[in-house]
Amino acid sequence: MLIENLTLHNFRNYVDETFALCDGLNVLTGKNAQGKTNCAEAVYYLCTGSSLRIRHDRQLIRYGQEFARVRATLKSRYGRVELQADIYENRRELFVNGNKVAKSVDFLGNMNAVFFSPGELRLVQDGPDERRRFLNLSISQTSREYCTALLRYQKILDQRNNLLKEHDFGLISDTLPVWDEQLALYAARIVARRRDFMKKLAPLAAEAHSFLTDGAESLSFGADGGEESEEEIRVRLLHEFASARERDMRLGFTSVGPHRDDIKIMIGGRDARGFCSQGQARTAALSMKLAELEIFRSITGEPPILILDDVMSELDLPRRKKLLSRVDGVQCILTCTHAERVLYGTECNKIRIQDGKIV
Questions:
Q1: Which domains does the chain have, with CATH numbers?
Q2: Cα four-point dihedral sign 143, 119, 59, 13
Q3: Which residues make beta-bridge pairs with 350?
Q4: How far apart are CA 325 and CA 211, in angstroms?
Q5: pLDDT tens column, 158-209
Q6: Which residues pair with 94 in a beta bridge?
């Protein structure tokens, strides 16, 4: 999967620029705050329909303008595809080959990307929300079924939580079982897909981590709850919802379910969140991203686009060289301030950016 060109119109600090990308390493270089990360963000937006940096799409529109547009032409094993996102103040419109897409879920899967930046340390060091977000964004790129289940689960969860805030306990007791049946159905699909994903990711991440650290440390993940079928998960979750019903009524929200799940990341057999250094967290998160890349490759039959945003400056020399060796054969977009300090003569397509312009 390759991006041939990427056009940004009124996106962040870009007025109108088109990037011609090669099939290997593409290096966006320039001083800080010139727009390198904005370009990387635009690519990821076309893959997932969301930004990793902001909550509201309107923040992507260049100041003083009414809308922004991101468009890319890419080549995959199935032929050429053109993706476009038009972003307005309170809405957006998505297009595939010029045809408007009615549902956001139908936009997914046309282009896959793995994104890594220094902020990805949150994946290891912060709370469960970050790890759930990693799972949701990654699995959704290759499974529209998962994305649909996630959206429906969240909608039912919101309705259940609204009901729990009511003071009519008779109404709550009569109505909750109905919501719980639907909630357990989609929850089971989510849990089953997450377990399948983690079974693939765990050995790949462990191998990548061993490679980056020369075998000095091991990366592993906590137990995921066994080998239940999707139906067994549904029945178990239905029982958990029922058992927690009185507590949920007191709290006013749903206290169990996949929206509360977590991944336990361990380095050398110890909980990474509790003791790991910045360097250890960075290497663990990078290993998970490299494993994600291999999962996408195995599912789609071709590698995704790899986006490395300001990563090299945070790695020591041996790990920089190891990382560069792993991106061979993958279209990679790498941002940095001084290319000559991190590439060591590696052949690449170098693009210098200044104030939102290619110079």
A1: 1-112+304-359 (3.40.50.300), 120-303 (1.20.1050.90)
A2: negative
A3: 27
A4: 11
A5: 999 999 988 777 888 889 999 999 999 999 999 999 999 999 999 999 999 9
A6: 85
